[in-house]
# Entry
Amino acid sequence: MPWKNQGGGPWGSGPKGPWGSGPQSVGPRPPDLEDLLRRGQDRLQQILPGGHFSGMGIALVLVGALAIWGLSGFFRVQSEELGVVLRFGKHVRTVQPGLNYHLPYPIETVQLPKALRVNTISIGMQLIDDPARRGRSMRDVPEESLMLTGDENIVDVDFTVLWRIKPDGVGNYLFNIQNADGTVKAVAESAMREVIGRSQIQPILTGARNATEQGVQELIQKTLDSYGAGIQITQVQMQKVDPPAQVIDSFRDVQAARANLEQLQNEAQTYANKVVPEARGRAAQITQAAEGYKEQAVAEAKGQSARFLKVYDEYKKAPDVTRQRIYLETMERVLGGSEKLVYDGGAGGQGVVPYLPLNELTPKRPNVPATTGQQGGTR
# Structure
């Protein structure tokens, strides 16, 4: 028999143990259940007509209970929500924002997911409270943002994903996935790593952002549709795409060198676009001049040959006359532009006779402008 139940033990009488007396009741006593039931019955009798449970009283109680039970089916759907009505746990319909009604519990119940709100998930960065700045600041998450490219380079990618619930997929959203944000984040990070792993680092850092965002969005949507998640990806935005901080200076130098290379190539192409047409124009001009000279020379040769043939035909008709005419025309052409000397070759001649240029002895009239009312010229 235990010592605490013995009437007199080594520690004295009563329910005591080796460490003193047993537990003592402290504080108010719990309410008496029978007393509460009795009080509730008395108040119900005071409410009922006649003061006792008659048939009319029981009917009124049942009608009131049914009315309260029926009115419990009214519910309100907020502007960002859609109402999903479940009948014995099965999705039967979806209702729009506003006041709606469903059969009271437990026949039908309603769930109100925020299906019309656009949600944002950030990957590679995290907003944290900053007491020093009295606000929130962005913290980089390297384990999410560092990715390996197809040419075995490491790139730091921060991006955000905008998603919402499909209007026709609310049931899938409620019953096929448990943590929507975690699912979308895991799928988005996996899709971004896959797209980056198939790409080169240079296009990612320069002009391939739009193509990368589009590819990631399509891959995320395809994966979520295979899960039956009922989620629609509206946009993928790449916030920052940089090399790792340890080598960013070297990458910037490489970028500057490539920019200079592109600038020089563009200048050379511009010079070539300017010089080549000019050279082609000059070549075309020379070609056209040569063609013109060719046509002119051929035409002159044909004309001379035709003239010669005509002269030859006339020569055959009258050789002496034609010969004399050719001689005179030739002498006129030869002596027409030379100085002329008259030589008297007779016996009593004086030899060379001085040539008198009559045109030079004629006095030249000065050019005097005519005045108004005067006629004639200089005498």
